Amino acid sequence: MPNTDVQEWKPSHNPWITCIPLMVAAFMFVLDETIANVALPYMAGSFSVSRQESTWILTSYLIASGIVIPSVDFFSKLMGRKNFFILSIIVFTVASFLCGIAHSLPMMVITRVLQGFGGGALLPLAQAITLELFPVEKRAQSMALFGLVVVIAPIIGPVLGGWITTNWSWPFIYFINIPIGIMAVYFAKIFIEDPPYAQKQENVSIDGLGFFMLIGWLTCMQIVLDKGNDADWFGSSWVCWLTFFAVLFAVWFFYIQATKKNSLVDLKVFKDKNFSIGTLVQVVMQGVLLASLAILPQFLQGLMGYDAYLSGLAMMPRGIGALSTVIFIGTIGSKINNKILVIMGLTLLSVSGFMLCHLNLQISTMNIAIPNFIMGIGMAMSMIPIITLSTMTLSNEQMTNASGVQNLLKNLGGAIGTSIVTTLISRKAQAHQSFLVDNLTLLNDNFIERLNSYQGVFSSLTDPISANYMAQTMLYKQMLQQANMGAFRDTFEVCAVACVVIIPLVLLIKGIKKKH
Questions:
Q1: What is the radius of gyration, based on Cα positions, of the chain?
Q2: Where do the DSSP E strands lie in 274-425?
Q3: Burial class (CB in 10 A: 0-12, 13-18, 19+), 271
Q4: What is the rounded CA–CA span in Å between residue 72 and residue 83?
Q5: pLDDT given for residue 511 in this prediction
Q6: Which pLDDT score is estimated for 246?
Q7: Which among 55, 89, 66 is positioned nearest to 229, based on CA atoms?
Q8: Angle, alpha carbons 307-310-314 (nearest 5°)
Q9: Which end of the chain, N or C, is more open, meaning fewer C-beta atoms within 10 Å of its C-beta?
Q10: Neighbours of 453 (CB within 10 A)
Q11: Residue with more model confidence, 155 or 491
Q12: What is the mean pLDDT of residues 105-117?
């Protein structure tokens, strides 16, 4: 149960006003995780590099932010949490400007690393401070506000990025952070304050070996997850070596954190059953969220012919569903058992996943909009209460460390989930192609009928031999489309099943009896 000694501190400003710089800064960071995705082809063209090389712009950001996230408790003790939060915003804002003026891929990767270092602390610190500002009984409302960040920002990122890139140019997806960052610094300096346990501490020593192991672990693992599928995973020697070092560094890191007195992170927080179970549920949910955000635009652009902006716009119903649910939870959500909300949300997530399993190449926009709307409702309905459930038995003194550890694992869940679905689509497409190609034979009456039909159309344009070749090519392309369509359906089904599997875990979370 929470330690009442550390719960006595109360903020001198209105908690809702204090949340303004917290939400603005966190929203800015989460938005930048997805806003650059649709602009990658334009950046690749500007830097004269391949699309594959341009993905380092995303990978470098994720690695840098992942290194900082679990270290927030240490840096908060080193310089004071408020000072660290403001410094992070400043670094993120300056790095955003440098990203916008980058003229080469190496410079862009360096500035994205700097941006990741600045932004990595924003989300866990915003979560920790927001939770501390409110008493336990009002945390559901505060987390509804936080849900605007963790749920809606990744959804509108591709839409906003596509619109800015199409109508202006890609540097402006970074330049928009500058006025927002200045505003966040100004309000943070005025309203945020450090409780006694979050102030600067004397004689804080850095866990140098642990920090080095963290860097090695996250760097190796992120590269493997991002590039492994392209290199045929363990069929490549460099993937095997990097995986080996990732596991070695990870085991060494956790051993140091578990045995060393002044470690980088405090793993004792996992002794709290609610925190451990709630974090595991969030890891899976984050994997589903980022995986669906990655593959649905691929489906719309690759098979349905949408451009970057329209594919992002097709995701907007998810944001509308999430926003309406955030408002609902913020108003009457406190009157409903959080576990019931989470279970209902996970159920809706699985329903939307199974609906996407029935997609085909003749669907209308509504066939995308409705499952997305349901998914938005389910994501907000489950994500917001599970954050409250996972932290309600922790003391305020544990919150900064717990938020850092939790957000690190959620980031890993998102990276793993995205990597899994990317591999599934690639492998499942091959499997479906192997099955469907057997139908492209002269022994199949339907194939012969369709071939003759196409050949008749092309015969009016060219000679019979070329017409036959063009007809077979068209049928082969249609077969490839159907194979990829089947791969996407199978992958959406995996996401739906994953949401169902974690529902029993929610029942293991213990509630807190309300005081009368």
A1: 25
A2: none
A3: exposed
A4: 12
A5: 64
A6: 92
A7: 55
A8: 135
A9: C
A10: 10
A11: 491
A12: 91
Token pair for 371: 């499952």
What is d(CA 77, CA 203) in angstroms, rounded to the nearest whole number? Answer: 10
d(CA 289, CA 376): 10
Which of 66-70, 76-80, 343-347, 357-361 is predicted most confidently?
A: 343-347
Q: Is the pLDDT of residue 2 over 50?
A: no
- Cα separation, 115 vs 333, in Å, equals 35
**Residue for token pair 């017409």:** 467
Q: How far is CA 329 from the centre of its chain?
A: 22
Sign of CA dihedral 125, 342, 147, 160: positive
CA dihedral 182, 184, 187, 193 (to 10 degrees): -130
Give the H or E element holding residue 274: helix 273-302
Written as six digits, the tokens of 135 are 């008493």
Residue 10, classed as helix, strand or coil, is coil
Q: Which pair of structure tokens corresponds to residue 201?
A: 């501490």
Confidence of residue 98 (pLDDT cuts 50, 70, 90): very high
Whose tokens are 């790095």? That residue is 95
Q: At 482, list the tokens.
A: 């159907």
Q: How far is CA 500 from each of CA 36, 163, 191, 347, rounded to the nearest angstrom?
A: 31, 35, 42, 7
- Percentage of the chain beyond pLDDT 70 is 95
